[in-house]
Design a protein that fits this description.
3-stranded antiparallel sheet, 3 helices
Length: about 90
């Protein structure tokens, strides 16, 4: 059976968001999943507003890929935390 991504509600929400975004390039997310399943992601780093990965693709040299995410101010984080707290215990 293929490896599943997004085992928790928030993990599933992350995958759902990526899938919606991937509609702009329908081959990108399946290719990324294949690389992840094959342990081709050689590094990940997390910066404010950005996830950066190094990937061993089909070419000789690794390449870097970026996923930009919205950053939040204090008021927005308070809302996010309230939503998360309201779902505590859900799977």
């Amino acid at each position: 059976m293929a490896q599943q991504f997004g085992h928790t509600w928030w993990g599933r929400a992350w995958v759902d968001a990526l899938e919606q975004r991937a509609a702009l390039d329908p081959s990108r997310l399946p290719r990324g999943r294949t690389y992840a399943r094959q342990d081709r992601v050689t590094s990940l780093s997390f910066e404010p507003g950005m996830v950066v990965g190094s990937v061993r693709g089909s070419r000789r040299l690794n390449y870097r890929t970026h996923i930009g995410v919205t950053t939040y101010g204090d008021d927005e984080w308070a809302e996010v935390i309230a939503v998360i707290a309201g779902r505590a215990g859900h799977t």
